[in-house]
Design brief:
Number of strands: 2
Number of helices: 5
Strand order of the largest sheet: 1-2
Order of helices and strands: HHHEEHH
Radius of gyration: 21 Å
Shape: extended
Largest sheet: 2 strands, antiparallel
Oligomer: single chain
Helix content: 40-55%
Number of domains: 2
Distance between the termini: 37 Å
């Protein structure tokens, strides 16, 4: 079935960030990938997982202080930038892409904020059903399937279908 890709939401003027709990932090720590590179502080996720019960309360206090002040801590804004080769001539800088290695604490805080933002967007129906990127159980495959289904529905109803596809190269 064809669907409109718009929202008809009644949105409050503000989004309030709830205080985070030790339990919230433990849930995020539990799913951290331990094989990822560390940030500038060289604190590995494996260490955080081993110390989560001790750290969770202190992290919750620190993150809640940041939320109350409305400021993302400067120390969590730092990253190590690593050039990763894409393809082609490796003497050409254009054939590399930058990867930012963040501290594990930055990743935890960002996941907490992203979780609250997504909860708000879902609660107020601000994400259209046509949105597939950055959504649970959605992917490029589900987007392609939905597009093909939409095309087939229109063709089966005797309508003409046009498509315009383009790739935007970011610089």
């Amino acid at each position: 079935a064809s669907q409109a890709c718009s929202t008809s939401a009644n949105v409050p003027e503000s989004m309030y960030l709830k205080p985070v709990t030790s339990s919230d932090i433990c849930c995020i720590i539990d799913v951290l990938q331990t094989k990822k590179a560390t940030g500038y502080d060289e604190v590995p996720a494996k260490f955080i997982k081993q110390c989560k019960n001790t750290l969770a309360h202190h992290l919750a206090e620190s993150f809640n202080d940041s939320l109350q002040r409305g400021a993302f801590p400067d120390a969590l804004k730092l990253a190590v930038i690593i050039p990763v080769p894409k393809k082609g001539n490796l003497t050409n800088i254009e054939n590399f892409r930058p990867i930012a290695l963040l501290t594990i604490f930055s990743k935890i805080f960002e996941k907490l904020l992203a979780q609250q933002l997504l909860d708000f967007l879902n609660k107020h129906h601000l994400i259209t059903e046509c949105q597939h990127g950055f959504r649970k159980n959605r992917s490029t495959e589900t987007a392609a399937t939905a597009m093909i289904q939409n095309i087939m529905d229109h063709l089966n109803n005797g309508k003409t279908v046009y498509g315009i596809f383009f790739d935007i190269l970011g610089r």
